[in-house]
């Protein structure tokens, strides 16, 4: 009897993820041990949760609350994670919203840049765009931490800049 007959004519699809080989950091012990190539996490309390990615290809590491906090309707609150971080050289950490919280609860994130030399506690500014209070429990996933490469060239003051087709056209100048 085939699957279609077993399920009464309903087609089921196997949705398991394909096996993806793990990257072996031990291939180069210098890379595995270097603080320049790892995200280093320090828990500041027993309520802190070490960030993790939901899947192998997830861009962000989930950040969790280390406290119970109410984000008031149309308001904001600073939610502690009780974590300090050390990020790889040549990157900065960006705190971004979780798509589910944004869609379902109208929760956004503000003030999301963590510089490479910051070693203090990481907090998440949650913005509540809804008309009802948002309750955060200890351990709730509240945001995601995304590492991004950064370029910080020297600043050079000049008298003029090269001309372009767009020139000084600003807001809405490239569309109709």
UniProtKB/TrEMBL annotation:
Coiled-coil stretches noted in the UniProt entry, renumbered to this chain: none
Region (Disordered): 1-28
Species the sequence originates in: Xanthoceras sorbifolium
Pathway stated in the Swiss-Prot or TrEMBL entry: Pyrimidine metabolism; dUMP biosynthesis; dUMP from dCTP (dUTP route): step 2/2
Alphabetical UniProt keywords: Hydrolase, Magnesium, Metal-binding, Nucleotide metabolism
Domain dUTPase-like: residue ranges: 47-175
NCBIfam families, per the entry: dut (TIGR00576), PRK00601.1 (NF001862)
Family to which this protein belongs: Belongs to the dUTPase family.
Record bears the keyword Magnesium: yes
EC number: 3.6.1.23
Family matches, as InterPro entries: dUTPase (IPR008181), dUTPase-like (IPR029054), dUTPase-like_sf (IPR036157), dUTPase_trimeric (IPR033704)
Task of the protein: Involved in nucleotide metabolism via production of dUMP, the immediate precursor of thymidine nucleotides, and decreases the intracellular concentration of dUTP so that uracil cannot be incorporated into DNA.
Enzyme class: hydrolase
PANTHER family registered for this protein in UniProt: DEOXYURIDINE 5'-TRIPHOSPHATE NUCLEOTIDOHYDROLASE
Catalytic activity: dUTP + H2O = dUMP + diphosphate + H(+)
Co-factor requirement: Mg(2+)
Protein name as it appears in the record: Deoxyuridine 5'-triphosphate nucleotidohydrolase
């Amino acid at each position: 009897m085939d699957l279609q007959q077993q399920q009464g004519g309903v087609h089921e699809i196997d949705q398991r993820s394909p096996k993806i080989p793990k990257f072996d950091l031990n291939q180069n012990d210098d890379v595995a041990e270097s603080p320049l190539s790892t995200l280093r996490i320090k828990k500041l309390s027993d309520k802190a949760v070490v960030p993790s990615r939901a899947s192998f290809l997830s861009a962000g590491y989930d950040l969790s609350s280390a406290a119970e906090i109410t984000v008031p309707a149309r308001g904001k609150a600073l939610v502690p994670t009780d974590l300090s971080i050390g990020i790889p050289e040549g990157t900065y950490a960006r705190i971004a919203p979780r798509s589910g919280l944004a869609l379902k609860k109208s929760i956004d994130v503000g003030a999301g840049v963590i510089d490479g030399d910051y070693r203090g506690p990481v907090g998440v500014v949650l913005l509540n765009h809804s008309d009802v209070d948002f309750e955060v429990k200890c351990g709730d996933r509240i945001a995601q931490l995304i590492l991004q490469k950064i370029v910080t060239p020297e600043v050079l003051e000049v008298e003029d800049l090269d001309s372009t087709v767009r020139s000084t056209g600003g807001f809405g100048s490239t569309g109709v």
